[in-house]
Every structure is written in structure tokens, then in C-alpha cells.
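Problem statement: downstream parser choked on a complex file, so we are re-checking the raw output for the DGJ run. The parser issue turned out to be on our end (a line-ending mismatch), but while we're here, posting the original submission so the record is complete.
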Amino acid sequence: MSIIFNEQNKTFYLNGKGYSYIFRINAVGYPEHLHFGAAVPCEDVSFVRSFGSRSQIATPAGVDNPNLSYNNTLPEIAFFGTSDYREPTFLVESERGDRLCDLEYVGHDILNEKPRINGMPSLDGGETLVVHLKDKFGDMQVDLYYSVYDDVSVISRRIVYKNGGNTTLKLHRAYSFTLGFGGVDYDVVTFPGNWMAERTPERRPMPHGVISSDSKRYSSSATQNPFIMVTSKDATEQFGEAYGISLIYSSSFVLKAEGTSNGDSIVTGGINDFDFCWTLGAGEILETPEAVIAYSNEGIGGMSRTLHDTFREHLINKRFVKQPRPIVINNWEATYFNFDNEKLCAIVDSVEGTGIDTLVLDDGWFGERKNDRFALGDWYVNEQKLVGGIDVIIEHTHAKGMKFGLWFEPEMINEDSDLYRAHPDYAIGVPGRPRSYSRHQYCLDLTRKDVRDCVVEMINKMLREHKIDYVKWDYNRNVTDAFSVGTDPERQSEFAHRYALGLYDICERIINGNPHVFFEGCAGGGGRYDPAMLYYFPQIWTSDCSDADTRTKIQYGTSMMYPLSTMSCHVSAVPNHQTHRVTPMSSRANIAHLGATGYELDTTKFTDEDKAAVKAQVEEYKQIQDIVLEGDLYRIENPYVSNYFTEMVVSKDKSRAILCVYRREAPANGDTKRIRLQGLDKDKTYRIEKLGIVASGASLMNVGMGVNYRLEDYTSDMYIITEA
Ligand code: DGJ
């Protein structure tokens, strides 16, 4: 890993693991992108430069040379108003109302220690280049940050915007990066979705024009994910080039891919500029979220493995990332709101001896919470429901050698709550206008410090006064009525980003303030599954759909960017509560075991046979857990296009692996499946106990193995592969 600046050709060489990222400062002081891809020597590669379109070219201000048109040069940052007609990286308005900017290079620093972003999560480690740019004719100053890492093929980027003058500037757009690609021969993959259908890969050609993937929901959302992929046309799971761009951000975002008129492509994005305006007073700065850009020439699978390693090594809380996860029994789908201490104790008793080690008490234990119309915000125990108090079930759980987890929804408030009666203004909304409901609740105004202090104190009090080992942090609706009574009128369009900063502040104070507690994230399932949340929550409830068959798709899509260790997955009852589908218990377990596993059904109704099955499943999971949490993922079959869902996870030293094969529908005359394994060491010999196979990695990967299935829908097997 190194960052080199060649004074002679004014070129920066960022040499990361297996890649080179090269750009130069051109004749007009513009940072011009030259290469990001497989590693090359630190030599002059400016011969790659094309001169683009000849039609109606404008030139940089005062430079009458069309060859230097910004529009025809691959950008490191694109700015509006002076010869660039592509998606600008930012847009700034001066006090007199002009929106022009013409940046030039004024210097750079190379830092051994990567600076953290104020108030926002980012990757740790990494050597960092900061390139300083300044408007030739105005006060705007821009710093481009690039960080490279020893151990992962990733470059991370962000931008800091600064008002270097004495007047006020307004940023109408302030993205985190622009990345150039030579040519348009690429595909773009985005991840649209919905509640219970999160992160569905959608692949299409790089357009002539703009593809935009965004959220205007004040959360990263289930409807898109802050991740976009650009691949070579021929890229598959195993072959071709893939670039994965992931934004460490939890509020409204946008990511855009544009095939430009000059035959090149760019990707840009960051904080969504829809309904955004940030005022920069004299000397003020705006720091933007970090974008993590993974490169692989080993296909989409290689890109995913790179991102997984990056998040595990440089982002997720080190206290938990490689620890065995709690194996939970969650009472939500078992009881919904209908429980008391007696029922909860019975659940704990019913899992004794199975290896399940944590009870998570879900929604309904607080305030006057009869159903979802009541009591959000009242984070104290409902003693009418939990007679004798919550310590009855906590102590019972601990006495059985299990840990105790509790559900909160810290960002929310119901109209029917003590908190709302005392502080109606804590809810986001415009005074005098009725607010929108969603799940009968409102969002708290986390842009206000007094509101944040109140939430932090209530939750920390519960965590101080009771022996709680685990918290499930839920978030069941998106913000509407964006307005804060605590913010000046001219700054109301800062709301979405200020919400993110407020959220990170309460996460810091609650999560990092209680280091002994394990925190799981949740947002009506996977409705806020993003890298910034993973910085705080080592795992996230992947989706409210717990049906094994639907989960194959959701977990497949989620694995494109996030490691299996981050996916909280539960075995639930049949008929499934969301799809009414009946799948075998073994398949529900096998699919859940491809993540941080758990159970969510009424275990008091277990037969002896069920209990024995769960015991065996948990034993098997404990045997493979380290592979699932830390290994390399190989997606062999895509459940969106195949009747099969097949995945392998291989330990880092390639001595052990798991293979999960799931078949949706049973063909009437049966079928035999040939599977070529991936990721093994070709020179090692492996044993697959269940099939009685002992063979070389070379044979298992090149010849493959046959699997026969019985005549039953939704069948699956988990094979454990060990070095012989
Ligand atoms: C949505 C979550 O995703 C569920 O698991 C459950 O916690 C409910 N909220 C409770 O309201």
C-alpha cells in the first residue's frame, strides 16, 4: 500500500491491495481521473485520455482550448457552471446568487493516520491522501479524501466542503465522491426492495443518461440500499471486473450512474440533495459521509468478499464482530403483544437443554403498551403486564444460564404516551399542521439535543437498573413532516442530515456507553440496513419475512454487500406468519444458519421430537458458526433465477467449509444436481461426511459432486466439509 505523488507529471498513484488508482492534476489545475482497476506500475498513463465529444464544447473559464473542457475529462470531482454538463458532485450558491465554481488544485497532504469524520461512522485504518482544491474566483474550498488499506482491495473517499470567505455560501448539493470510468461498456446493479422484500439485485446496462438509486425517507430504507455496483459486461459471480460502492450513511442518500455524452461513465452520490440545502457561514465546513469502493477482477463474488472483509476488519465493532453470537429465542412471532411473566418463563423453560442461550423480550413490555397504538417513548416497565416487574423474567432467564435481551424503539413516540402528553413538541412535525401516522406512531426530533438527552437517559436508566445483556433496537417507520422547532427557518432543509447526526449521537451514547450490552439493529426488518448502522450494530434483523423460501432471496441480495455475520435470521413457525408457506424445519434451520441464527416461535408447543431437532440444529450451528461469521462466501446458485439456492462459506485457511443446497420445487420425476464447489484449496483433500466423499479440492471444484433429492418441496441440506 502506498500513496505517491509524482511532481513531474503531477500524478497521484494510490496503490492498494491488487489495484492502482491514478489521477493527475492537468494543465488547468483540474484533478483528472486516469485509472482505477488492476495494479499497474507508477508510470505516465495519461495516454489513456480521450478527447470525447466535439459537439458544443465549452472551455474552462478564460481558457480557450476545447481539449481542456471539463466535460470531456474524467473527473475526480465535477462542478457546475463552467463547461461541465454532467451530474455535478456539488452545487454552491454565493450570497449574490451565482452558482458557479471553478476549482483548482492548491496542494495536498499524505497522512499516515486516517482522520475520523466528526459525528459519523467511517472505516478505521488506512493511509490517506487529502487533495486541497479552491475556487479560482470565489470562496469555496474543497478537500478530497482518499484512503487506501493494506489488507482489502478498497479505496474509501469523502469530501469536506469549506467556506473560505466572509460571506455565506449555500450548498444545494454536497456529494461524497465522483468516480470516473473509461467508456460505457458496463452494467449497473442497484438494490430496490420493499418491506419483506429487501435488497433485490437489478442489473441493467450503463445508460446514456442517468440511473439514480435513492432514498428520500430520512433513512437508508428498504426501498433502495446505499450501495451500487458497476461491472464489466461479462461479469459473473466468478469472472470479470466488479466495483461495489457503498455509502456509510443512514439517512436520505442518492447514488447515480451516468453514461455521459462523451462516451465515458461516472458514478457519484452521497447525501440526497433532494430537499437539501446546507448553509456554510464564514469558515464553516460540511463533512460528508464516506464512500467505500471495492474493486475485484474475480467477479461479483470477489467484490462481495472484499466488502465483507472490509466491514469486518475496518468498520464493525471489534468487541463483537468475531465473537460467537447469542443464539436467541425471540418471543415476537410466538406471542406478539400477548405475554406475561408466566408465559415468558415457560418459553425459557421450554428451550432448556437445546443450546439456545438468550431470551429476547420483544415489543410490548413497557408503559401502557396494549398494542401498537400505545406507549412508545415510555421506557419503563409495564408492571400490570409483567406482574412483579421485569426482574422476574430476567432473573429466571439468568438462573437458567441464559442471557436476557430487551426490545426498544428509541426514535419513536405514540400520541398515547406519557412522553407525548408531557412533550408533544418532541415529535417531528410542523406546529399547527396534523402529522402523518405510520404504524400509528410519530418520530422523535433527534435533531434536537434536549430530545436526544431525554431518550438517552430513559434507555440508559433501564440498562443501568436491570441486568440486560442484549438490546434489539427497532425503527418501524420513516420520517414524514420534516421540520424541527429547534432549527431556524432558513436551515430547515438541513433536516435529513441533521437527523442522521442525531441518530449517530444517541447510538454513541447508548451503545458505546454500555459496552457490556450486545446491540442488534432492526427497522421493521431490514429497513435501515447500511454500513453506518453496522458500525453500531454487529447484526441486523434482515427482514420481517421469516419464511425460509423468501429468505433465500433476501439473504442472497443482502450478501452482495454485507457479510453473513451481520444477518440476523430466525427459524419461525409454519405455516409461516407472513407467506403462509409450509417449509420443513430442517430447511428453516439451514437457511437461518447462513447468518446469526436464532428461533422465533412458540417453543412451549414443542414436541420432544421438535426439541431434539432444535438441539441437533444448534449443535451443528455451533460447529460451523466461526465459518459463517468469518469465512469467505461463494454464491453458487441465484434463487431469483434458479430453482436452487446454493451457497458455500470457506474458512480463511481453507481447511473447513460449509455447503448449503436448497431446492424450491420438487420436479415430478425428481432431479439430480451436479454442484461444482468453489473456494477450496485444490491441493488439499477434503471429507464430506454426510455423503461419504473424500476427494481433492481440485476434483470437488472441477468435477463437482452429485446431490439427489427426495420428492418434497423446499428441501435442503447443509454439508460440512473438513480437511481430511
Ligand atoms: C418490527 C420488527 O422487525 C419485528 O421483529 C418486531 O420487533 C416488531 N417490529 C415489534 O413491533
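For whoever reads this later: The chain has a mean pLDDT of 97.
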